[in-house]
Design a protein that fits this description.
Layout (H helix, E strand, L loop, with lengths): L4 E10 L22 E10 L8 E21 L13 E21 L8 E12 L11 E5 L5 E3 L1 E12 L4 E13 L5 E4 L6 E14 L4 E17 L6 E17 L2
Antiparallel strand pairs: 1-2, 2-3, 3-4, 4-5, 5-8, 6-7, 6-10, 8-9, 9-11, 11-12, 12-13
Length: 258
């Protein structure tokens, strides 16, 4: 975009390896001839500082769409999923989709020479439909059962924010917060990665930290809080039971690289 930035358009064909089942499909390790996952993304990156006295050293934002196919195998005439069946089974194909993107603002402030007294901000979001482990965004459920008896891919949505203020070039205070939610969480789960028949309906993570990064060394202290809501839904009656788990911890971080 002139001399101030550039636009990138990226398309891809992926074949992620998930699990050890033998069921075909884009999002499993089936036959090599299966249709893969297709993705298309577009993004922008500035190549020079935006603004004079007050400005941004670098601005980046973009979004990506991905879609593919995954197959579930059931005991014939039932919704009992079993990838190990070699006979007397039914298979159903589902479409997985995902949209994710974000924005990054680096070194916002009056200092054009260094990071001291500047603000950096990162934010991202995603929406998933069906299998999403190939994005590291799997959220327990893959297929759910609707009231009319049909099966459909489970959906989730989430996002994160990560503001950072640099007191000096090497000292910063940071906060990171993110959440992911199950959409339509009252529907019974047919297939997924459940824990004692419970799946996550909401996962929230928040961390505040202070960092010092002199040369090749990194030192930090952080307070981390995680809250996760779980639910199980009876397949026949639709009755549900909810659980909540909270976890807090303090962390001391140190590493170096040369």
């Amino acid at each position: 975009v002139g001399s101030s930035g550039r636009i990138g358009i990226i398309g891809g064909v992926e074949r992620p390896f998930l699990g050890n089942d033998n069921v075909g499909g884009d999002l499993g390790n089936g036959e090599a001839g299966e249709i893969p996952v297709f993705s298309l993304g577009v993004g922008y990156e500035s190549t020079s500082r935006i603004g004079d006295s007050f400005g941004i050293r670098k601005l980046r934002f973009g979004a990506r769409f991905a879609t593919g196919r995954f197959i579930e195998r059931f005991e014939a005439g039932t919704f009992n999923a079993d990838f190990g069946l070699q006979s007397n089974f039914d298979e159903q194909s589902f479409t997985a989709k995902a949209v994710h993107g974000g924005i990054s603002i680096d070194d916002l402030g009056f200092n054009a020479e260094s990071r001291a007294r500047t603000f950096t901000f990162r934010m991202g979001g995603l929406w998933t439909n069906g299998e999403a482990r190939y994005l590291d965004a799997g959220f327990d459920r893959r297929v759910v059962h609707r009231a009319d008896g049909t099966l459909e891919p489970a959906r989730s949505a989430g996002g994160f924010v990560n503001p950072m203020f640099f007191l000096t070039d090497t000292v910063s205070i940071r906060w990171a917060g993110g959440a992911q939610y199950a959409l339509d969480p009252s529907l019974p789960v047919v297939t997924g990665s459940l824990t004692n028949n419970y799946f996550r309906t909401r996962n929230w993570n928040s961390e505040i930290s202070a960092w010092w990064t002199p040369g090749p060394f990194t030192f930090a202290i952080a307070y981390n809080f995680i809250k996760t809501n779980f639910r199980t839904v009876d397949f026949m009656t639709g009755a549900s039971t909810d659980l909540v788990n909270s976890n807090t911890k303090f962390e001391a971080i140190c590493w170096f690289s040369f």
